[in-house]
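[#protein-structures] MJ: dropping LETM1 protein here for a structure pass
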Amino acid sequence: GKKSLRQRAVDELKHYYDGFHLLWTDTKVAARMVWRLLHGQVLTRRERRRLLRTCADLFRLVPFLVFVIVPFMELLLPVFLKLFPEMLPSTFETESKREEKQKKKLNAKLELAKFLRETIAEMAKRNKADTG
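AK: finished. structure tokens for LETM1 protein:
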């Protein structure tokens, strides 16, 4: 059924609390990685990607905090998210948004594969015509 306004507000607050908690945890882990880098250790590929994602999230947090701090500005957040979908830090994404993003990436990869297949087929026809 449909949730009440109070329940939806509580769910949103929980979502933002969980997002900030995850971002804080990621920041602590990233700080340890930076400490290891400064002491000459090498990061694995996974650690490097996590560090880059966390740094990007921290930079995205600055404009997002404006919406949280300024009263009633959070009402404009859906409009800005529609205009700038990558504005939110990754820890604040919902599961449906994450799945939607994965579907878009998969479709783009499929289109690229289709284009490359057609290009190779065209090149094969040209080579066959040149040699024949």
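MJ: nice. The chain has three domains: 1-41, 44-87, 93-131.
AK: one more thing. The chain has a mean pLDDT of 88.
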